[in-house]
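Record 1 of the preview.
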Amino acid sequence: MVSKIKLIFLFDGGCPFCQREVSFLRSKDVSSLISFVDINSSSYKPELFSDISYREAMGSIHAIKASGEVIKNVDVFREAYRIVGLGWIYAPTTLPVLAPVFDQVYKLWASWRLTLTCRPSLDQLCKLKDINANQGKSEKVEGTHN
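->
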């Protein structure tokens, strides 16, 4: 069976802005062409998603096209909006004069996103993710001995 998924969209489920964007895109994705993956989920495994680490995905938005190509930053939004039939919204971001401006604005946003949403730093979130992952492993090991 051939998958109809055109884009795997990695997002931060702990970010209220990201949740809002994903909710909007899901509502427009009537053909279910985008698979949304919450990188904050305990089931997120980088090896299943082109080895995009939690740190990388939290640092800037990433997606994986059906071809396997990894895209990030504003390109993710351009592609997602194109897939749901709203490519015209991001079309101006491809203009040679405007593209670098939009790319820089996104990079600035990505660097401040956690602070602006009153969340811990990227280093702190990565440490918490590692602690939670290690606790899950030890619980599984302990559970196998019962």
